[in-house]
UniProtKB/TrEMBL annotation:
Molecular function as annotated in GO: ATP binding
Family annotation (InterPro entries): AAA+_ATPase (IPR003593), ABC_transporter-like_ATP-bd (IPR003439), ABC_transporter-like_CS (IPR017871), ABC_transpr_LolD-like (IPR015854), P-loop_NTPase (IPR027417)
PROSITE patterns per UniProt: ABC_TRANSPORTER_1, ABC_TRANSPORTER_2
Residue span(s) of domain ABC transporter: 21-267
Keywords: ATP-binding, Nucleotide-binding
Pfam families to which the protein is assigned, alphabetical: ABC_tran
Name of the protein this chain belongs to: Phosphonate ABC transporter ATP-binding protein
Species of provenance: Kocuria oceani
Length: 269
């Protein structure tokens, strides 16, 4: 089945400044297992895109393409205007510094003070020497404090991170994202392990962090198992099934039947 709509209004070509992520006929195979099968899609600057679909549909694989951890087996991929496969290791590092990743696991270093975990968001842009210096004596402490305040955590930057509650640690991870200041945020089931109230809270916080003081919005692509969360927090829903895009619509076009169609539809031809 072809997707209901693969939106591409305003697209004028590969160099179009508003395009953050573009896949053209992208397939990904793990051995003989086809995880993505000829996917076409375009994500524009400032969009909040939810990836939904049943388990094994290809959502994580698609997000992996965005951050360069997965390489297309076939097709053309552009991320922030470049093709990751064509980059040198150094250029790939530079690209990754512009992309924020959020996972179910927070990847914090528990025994380290909070400030270091927040500053880890800068590692992609700091040189090695600077990173080591900051471990000895934390750099950019005021910015770390501001980021923590923005996510609603008190001023104690020097407490061990693993002494904080699970919810507070989640906020430290979001403060790390904030100091990284990425142009594109890729979040792979960031709230899967949380109860509904916490999931709502984290999604609200994450979406709030996308808003920049300049009035611009960072782009978000987030995979979510909770369809209602996707509709409440995103402005576009892309459904994958069997490695194919089966639906791509603005949330205003989501109706009562959409959920059933996503989860009960037969896979595409
Ligand atoms: N590293 C891998 N090696 C082999 N097969 C893989 C690998 N990663 C994913 N797959 C397979 O590719 C398909 C798509 O997996 P993917 O994790 O992208 O789906 P998903 O939609 O994110 O699933 P879930 O919602 O369960 O996380 C699945 O059939 C999966 O088993």
């Amino acid at each position: 089945m072809s997707p209901d709509r693969v939106t591409a209004p305003g697209e004028t070509g590969p160099g179009h400044a508003g395009i953050v992520l573009r896949l053209r006929g992208v397939s990904v195979a793990y051995g003989n297992r086809l995880a993505l099968d000829g996917v076409d899609l375009t994500v524009r600057r400032g969009e909040r895109v939810a990836l939904v679909g049943p388990s094994g549909a290809g959502k994580s694989t698609l997000l992996g393409l965005g951050n360069g951890t997965v390489v297309p087996t076939q097709g053309r991929l552009d991320v922030l205007g470049v093709e990751p496969r064509a980059l040198s290791p150094g250029a790939l590092r530079t690209l990754r510094a512009r992309i924020g990743s959020v996972h179910q696991q927070l990847h914090l270093v528990g025994p380290l003070p909070v400030v270091h975990n927040v500053n880890a968001g800068r590692l992609g842009s700091w040189g090695r020497l600077r990173a080591v210096r900051s471990l000895v004596r934390p750099l950019q402490v005021d910015e770390a404090r501001t980021a923590l305040e923005r996510v609603g955590i008190g001023p104690d930057l020097h407490v061990r991170t693993d002494r904080l509650s699970g919810g507070e640690q989640q906020r430290v991870a979001l403060a790390r994202l904030l100091v990284q200041d990425p142009e594109l945020v890729l979040a792979d089931e960031p709230v899967a392990s949380l109860d509904p109230a916490r999931a709502e809270d984290v999604m609200r916080l994450l979406c709030g962090l996308l808003e920049q003081p300049t009035g611009h919005r960072r782009t978000l692509v987030v995979s979510l198992h909770d369809f209602d969360l996707a509709v409440r927090h995103c402005d576009r829903v892309i459904a994958l099934r069997g490695g194919r895009v089966v639906l791509d619509v603005p949330v205003e076009e989501v109706d009562e039947g959409t959920r059933a169609r996503i989860y009960d539809l037969a896979p595409g031809p």
